[in-house]
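PROTOCOL LOG
Step 1. Enter all chains and additional molecules of the complex.
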Amino acid sequence: MSLAKPDATDISNKQKIALGIGVIGLFIMAIALLNTNFPNKGLFLSLALGLITAGTVWYSREAYLTKLEGIKNNGVWFKSISSRGVWGWIVGVILTVFYIVLYFYPQYLGLGKDGAPNTGLIALFDPLSNLLSGRNASQWFVYGTLYTIAILAFGYKFILKYRHNRYQQLRTISVMFFQLGFAFLIPEFMYVMNNDLPYYDLKSVWPLNYYIFDEWSVKGFLSNGNIGLALIIFGILSIFVITPILTYKYGKRWYCSWVCGCGGLAETAGDSFRQLSSKKLYAWRIERWLIHAVLVFSVVMTTAMVYTYLGYDSNDFWLTRGVFISLVIGFLTVIFTGVMIFKRRELGKDAKYGAIGFFVVIALLLVMHFTGTTEQLFYVKSGSLRSVYGIYIGSIFSGVIGTGFYPILGSRAWCRFGCPMAAILGFQQRLFSKFRITTNGGQCISCGNCSTYCEMGIDVRAYAQKGENIVRSSCVGCGICSAVCPRGVLKLENDSMNGRINPTEILLGNDVDLMDLVNQK
Amino acid sequence: MEHVVIIGNGISGVTLARHVRKLSDKKITIISAETDYFFSRTALMYIYMGHMKFEHTQPYENWFWKKNRINLVKAYVKRIDTDSKQLILDSHEPITYDKLVIATGSKPNKFGWPGQDLEGVMGMYHKQDLENLETHAPNNNVCKRAVIVGGGLIGIELAEMLVSRSIPVTFLVRESSFWNGVLPEGESAMINRHIESHHIDLRLSTNLKEIKADENGHVKSVIIEETGEELACDVVGLTAGVSPNVDFIKSSKIEIGRGVKVNRYLETNIPDVYAIGDCAEQHEAIGNRRPIEAVWYTGRMMGETLAQTLCGNRRMYNPGHWFNSAKFLDIEYQTYGWVFGVRGRPDYEQHFHWKHNDDTKCITIAYHKDTNKFLGINTFGIRMRHETFDRWLTEERDVDYVVNHLSEANFDPEFYKQHEKEILFAYTNQLQTA
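Step 2. Run joint prediction.
Step 3. Record the structure below.
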């Protein structure tokens, strides 16, 4: 390609000032990180968070309200930050380092060990934490606060960017609400009401919150009377009842792009990076193997974990190891047989891989049951499976790579390649859901905007130009493909299951006889 | 093994190649002088605007062609010898064909304006045009003003492109209102206002007289026919339509009119030579269509049809109901069936027009004034469902039915405000007052 990369259009002076204001906010935190002891922490924390928010809000207003409503992707591939340029890499490195420190070296953020008072950045957040729950901040509180601010401020930006599109606005208001309320405030208030309860973000569903069935978690719930019991029952209902019903009616988007916190961050702060996801065929091949491998891992890990602690106080409770493992195997078998009986044809070649996956899980569980002792599972210490999952999947994959690599891999790398929850919802969306993206007859001009701006790396155009509806397990229903389409070709819909998948050879608009002849299979 | 050679790697030629491959094992070769691989011409504008990179406009990854055994040759065809069934190329040895398909598309019109070949004067059709624009209008320091000549679909796209880089644009339109040869006046007037709201200097009923050069043979200014006004500019975009790209065929025995003359089977006067897409000219127009249809969709349909013929199932090119779409800056446009502007409108065609008071949405429904039969719809700023209108046109619904059932055809994203009630109200009112 002989086209040189043109200069990005300069931002306006007002935008530069707005950017400066935001950077001052970040700078205050940077100073705190270097262990500066601020005299009035409450004031400086408010100042830092306030400046970041104000800067983002003002910047967004200048960026979008000065222009007419419409698609605002001018210069996306010219800007360094959004096209894997120098700024993209710098931001990527900073984010990655932040996540590594957060997960593995919180002492550098100033976390006080063994009751020692916090210092540095975490101490800066103590006043807010005390205000909400009456305890000092932890690294997770700092992270939660920044995460929430990011979703709120960039959510505002996103709403302005799509101010002609109510689907985008409502969806964004929804993720902002769920982040602020469910992930941030409610758990703090729950702590105030009952400080023995484990942290529980009500909207977070297993296997995304893989820790909900940890021993300490389950014990924490069960030792807290009816509220605790209700919460854990809600957790189980979420997986087996609420999720399937909503996904059947609306597709996995009800969760992934309306409720989920990871999705919320990707759709707001990550929006500038959505075009960086790879649409290549090989990326899709990696995706299928990786995400399902994580799912298998999480199922086996969770089962093993519960199995472990059922081991040592079994006899006074009906749920023994034997019963539990039978329940799990029974449940998986019911699902597997159901799919094979009713959906065998839709799966095509993938049925083989599904069967392999199923038998691998069953085999692993049986091996575990017959070789396991109270101390060891799979001949290793019983807790180590859980900690390996926590470190490699929970921290490194979802956090360090998932978010740290936003400017390199796009905003949904975790959702696409790793999230086991997305895998389950996607499986259901592909086979048992009314959701699809409808293609508008023969109107596609193969321009590629839809594929380019798909954060999940779906080659939307490949379907649209064939006049075929998009029914893909990975689609999170963000609706951006539909928004950026210049010809009104794509529409997210919930409709009947019949004719949902409609491959065609000859598109609408050609000779009717020819279409009938060639398209009937 | 029969060798199918296709000249041109645009949507027509590539669709043909794909379908021939699905239906047969024939040897397929595509020759193009423009690019190595197929790309979406309609998306060129988005590269300049920074929405996409060139690679994003390629609908198939580069391995696709080899995997499907479609040979790609990058060369320019200098001469076609239909007697020996040979193509003479500029940078490649001659290629012999069994079946030849000409799918060379269009080239921008130039009407003999003085200065039309100067540096900085360009059309916006080929990838080379885009590269040319990038050279002459990388930003508003190098290009202080651009003048666009010709108010059609490519003209307004070029205007949008330049505006995306904050380059001031003067838009010379010969007609008294934008694209009113095609659009009814209410719609055309709304687009005029929309163009101006983007700070584009729209000059209606204005013609180009000549383009002046500076001492380096580069564009310096244009002179306007009507007023004699001289406008300083650094780029001139010539977007007064396109015509078939067939000059290289003139030396052959293949019959040429404005395009390559074909019958309804897309066959030329020479056996085993066919033409599809923008460059094909029907002996007689099909229905209300033009003999030369320079539209993405029709190119694709001709490719789909000819593939059947080449693979033993001889089919007429028999397109269904007319449809098309475009985008005017921020306003999307779709059309189904026939709605005529003032020019060429049949006597029996009557219109119902509704416009939203935000001035970015409107529809026009055409119907037969005696029978009330629904003839077609233009819709701006509201997406509508192709399938529904295609069915209604086949079922020959009347205009009452269409207006009353309009919500069934709505294709806007979920939660969008719906306007069908308002439209029905306007429709009922209009009938009462008429």
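Step 4. Note key features.
The CA atoms of residues 50 and 498 of chain A lie 51 Å apart.
Chain A has three domains: 8-67+105-193, 281-420, 432-519.
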